[in-house]
Amino acid sequence: MRSIKSHGAPTPYDRPVRLLLAILVDSPHFRRLLGALGVFVVILLAGTLGYLALGKPGTTVVDGLYMTFITVATIGYGEVVEMRHTDLGRFFTMAIALAGIANMTFLFSTVTAFLLETNLNHAYRRRRMQAAIDTLDGHFIVCGAGRIGGYVIDELRADRRAFVVVENDAAALEGRLEADPRLLALHGDAADDDVLARAGIARAAGVFAVTGDDSKNLVISLSAKQLNPGIRVVARVHDPRNAAKTLRAGADQIVSPDYTGGHRIASLMIRPQMVSLVDELLRAGERLAVEEVVVPPRPSPLRIAALGHSVEWLLVAVRDGSEWRFNPPQDASVSPGQALVVIASAEGRRALQARVAG
């Protein structure tokens, strides 16, 4: 049986060790620690050379190094290199001891300060979360974990979508993490390009700009489109006067909670059964839901008849750019990039995606 270590494969302990080392490197005490270790090496080297020069004939490098180490460490095993014959050797030993003890004190104080001032649990969790985010692809970024953002998070979680939350309010973020420890989240301003880059904006499929500030949602939309021109951005707007500006900044869709809420209230009174049906179809986790399947790149257009029929899905419409084709005939064809809007179960959606890809 071949050894795993002989092939350089990572062990279960490699990742925690790498994360802890990264935390240490990022610490402000890292330079002081490196300096103390460097001085320690210099003291060992100077002591070894000094004892070689001052010791009796026959003194070896190992004798000088060992003598220096036990002097600095104050172990006190006795003189390995005899210094009774020379006062200079005794003064040299005292100098090495003073320098070594002072350096060791500084070294231990630096390590103590690092342990006391660094929240290792928080830093380790942050590093581990960033490592998990770096593995995501085709995920969503939710900018803002407030009231509206919370509903978006719940919907994405129920639909089993991969996503990352970016929130500038540390208390609100901690509350979210306490309620859902599996949540992937970053503390920072979502309008900052560096924060969006850490959230994987280059690999993300979409961004929800749902903070409580219209101006910030506008900047998030602009930054997201600049960092990833192909990404889809849905932005929240409180003031209708900011809708056109946010669209020009790069948002693909605008949602006004006030307008949507008012429209829904009126619809519940005028057409309650329709609203009930739409709610059932849009609610994540139900057996049937309104889904969309995008036609992937393929050498030739796909005919509707080639999709066949299934009790698990029902084709409602085809989205072609800005145009809708409802209930398309069997001899119609769809091209790559067009979206099939269907009422389907989870199994039906996966089966349709497989047929479209084939």
Structure description:
The two termini are 42 Å apart. The longest helix is centred in the N-terminal third of the chain and has 31 residues, at 87-117. Helices cover 51% and strands 15% of the residues. It is an alpha/beta fold and 358 residues long. The relative contact order is 0.06. The chain contains 13 helices and 12 strands.
Q: pLDDT under 50 segments (min length 5)?
A: 1-13
Structural class: alpha/beta
**Major beta sheet summary:** 6 strands, parallel
Determine the strand fraction and express it as a percent band. 5-15%
State the shape: elongated
Outline of the structure:
With 358 residues, the protein is of the alpha/beta class.
Outline the fold blueprint.
Blueprint: H1 14-26, H2 30-54, H3 61-72, H4 87-117, H5 120-133, E1 140-143, H6 147-158, E2 163-167, H7 170-179, E3 185-187, H8 193-198, E4 206-209, H9 214-227, E5 232-236, H10 243-249, E6 253-255, H11 257-270, H12 272-282, E7 289-294, E8 302-303, E9 313-320, E10 323-326, E11 333-334, E12 339-344, H13 346-357
Parallel strand pairs: 1-2, 1-4, 2-3, 4-5, 5-6
Antiparallel strand pairs: 7-12, 8-11, 9-10, 9-12
Helix pairs in contact: 1-5, 2-3, 2-4, 9-10, 11-12
Labels describing this entry:
12 strands, alpha/beta, disordered N terminus, 4-stranded antiparallel beta sheet, elongated, 13 helices, 6-stranded parallel beta sheet, 358 residues, 51% helix
